[in-house]
Specification:
Layout lengths: L18 H4 L12 E4 L2 E4 L19 H6 L9 H11 L25 E2 H22 L3 H9 L4 H7 L10 H11 L7 H17 L4 E5 L2 E2 L13 E2 L7 E5 L3 H14 L4 E3 L8 E3 L10 H6 L5
Antiparallel strand pairs: 1-2, 2-3, 4-7, 5-6, 8-9
Helix pairs in contact: 4-8
Length: about 300
């Protein structure tokens, strides 16, 4: 497996050391004690994580989304690559949405929803297709978008192609959506308008459970003792209520990183390794490959 890009790849999108990211109160759990594939599904093994439940923070690992999308860099990820990623990050959603992800359920496993290997692969394909779609929109690659419409290869492509289908009886909503695209900015071709609309809808759907929240400007001591009575202490040099975010699960936090990448208009480049062609943030002008492995493998194609 190639090198996972460093935090510098997403420099400027978010600061994992910022107060509002360190203090986020999240509800998905970290990786469980272990995972297994049984009857075609990835499941958490019984028992809490080793060392208990640490305070979860998705922005401590700023390449969470990118590492997930990169699982599909060479087609369908193998079970071993999937299990390596899951063992580090956990499963995508909660099994019981009424309780925190940092909980152990009656069956003895952490609160993570088992997922079939094929559904996990489908989510990887969706994430990669969304990243590719953004890269093509960002560089105004109409030819690549036209190819997606003509020969859809993923659910994302099919959603884009649906805006240009020959359905003789489109719904009123579809007609209005298409009208909105065609009568939008005259400087943008309709295919770019449609692609932008599809990507915005997909990202919005993926982070639907994410909510902004206010974090108190003063914090109580974690474990006050009898000799030192509990008292308010300043969380910062000067009192100021902090910004924070609520994430229902790992999946929503992952797509929040894509949201930040897209909405901050980060430039993208395509890996020069022919079997990979993975989009990656263009952090350096002279960088041609998404990872060291691709740089090495590309020598075979020269």
């Amino acid at each position: 497996m190639g090198r996972i890009p460093s935090k510098g790849e997403f420099h400027g999108l978010f600061d994992p050391e910022a107060e509002h990211f360190r203090d986020m109160s999240l509800v998905w759990s970290p990786a469980a004690r272990g995972y297994m594939i049984w009857q075609g599904k990835i499941r958490a093994r019984p028992g809490p994580p080793k060392g208990g439940f640490p305070s979860p923070n998705p922005f401590a690992y700023t390449d969470l989304f990118y590492s997930f999308a990169r699982l599909g860099a060479s087609g369908k990820p193998t079970e071993s690559r999937i299990m390596e990623w899951v063992s580090q990050n956990g499963l995508l959603t909660r099994k019981d949405e009424s309780v925190s992800g940092a909980s152990v359920l009656e069956d003895g496993a952490v609160n993570q929803q088992p997922i079939s290997v094929e559904d996990f692969r489908s989510e990887v394909s969706r994430a990669r297709a969304m990243l590719e779609l953004y890269a093509e929109i960002r560089r105004s690659d109409v030819r690549a978008l036209d190819a997606r419409i003509a020969q859809p290869r993923s659910a994302v492509d099919r959603q884009l192609a649906s805006y240009f289908s020959d359905d003789p009886n489109p719904s009123f909503r579809q007609l209005m959506d298409r009208l909105d695209i065609w009568l939008g900015s005259l400087a943008i071709r309709s295919v770019l308008g449609a692609a932008d609309k599809v990507l915005a809808e997909l990202i919005s759907e993926s982070i639907a459970g994410v909510c902004p929240r206010a974090i108190r400007g003063y914090a109580l001591p974690m474990a006050p003792d009898e000799e030192r009575p509990s008292q308010m202490r300043a969380a910062a040099k000067n009192y100021r209520m902090q910004q924070g975010w609520y994430y229902p699960d790992l999946r929503s936090a992952m797509y929040m990183q894509l949201y930040l990448l897209v909405t901050q208009n980060q430039p993208m480049r395509i890996c020069d390794n022919p079997p990979c062609r993975m989009p990656f943030p263009a952090t350096r002008k002279n960088r041609r490959f998404c990872c060291d492995t691709c740089r090495s493998n590309a020598r075979h194609y020269r």
